[in-house]
Amino acid sequence: MRGSPQPQRSQDHSLRACWCDECTPEQVDLVRTSFDAMWPIRRDLADLCYNRFVELAPDARQMFGGDTEKQRKKVLDMITALVASLDERPMFQSLIAISGHKHAILGVQPSHFVAMGEALMWSFERQFGASFTPELRESWHTLYATAQNEMLRATGRHSSF
């Protein structure tokens, strides 16, 4: 995470190919804008999110191994990949297939995805305070829930966040 450049994305924010069919254009804009604002504090956000996740799902700690720094980086990498792939359905589908397969091998359960979603929203609330509006929360929730459901579908499991 240290020294990582902010990912570049196309200036064309058209939703024609957006993988998040449930997201409105306004929600996608809110996610992108908040992601840009999050970039300078990404390490703190990843720390908050991972710590909260293992509080909510303590059994997950042993599933993912002892390298917590690596796990925190993976949380940030996944958030970055989701946002970066908004206009790239094939990239998203590849990301979900690979990640879903890895999570299935590790024994990740639907409840772990729910806990991660809750941890992510909790972390955003802590980092952004009053600027984490209900509209922004709903935008991130929709994005995460869509990705979660696609990943669970790819692994043959189902849940709802």
Walk me through the structure:
The protein has seven helices and no strands. With 161 residues, it is an all-alpha fold. It has a single domain, classed as Globins (Globin-like, Orthogonal Bundle).
Low-confidence stretches: 1-17
CATH homology superfamily: Globins
Q: What composes the largest sheet? A: none
Mean pLDDT, all residues: 82
Number of domains: 1
- Which band does the percent of strand residues land in? under 5%
State the oligomer. Answer: single chain
Total strands? 0
Based on CA atoms alone, the radius of gyration comes out at: 15 Å
- From the 3D coordinates, which CATH architecture would you assign? Orthogonal Bundle
What structural category arises from helix and sheet content? mainly alpha
- At the third CATH level, what is the topology name? Globin-like
Approximately how much helix is present in the residues?
55-70%
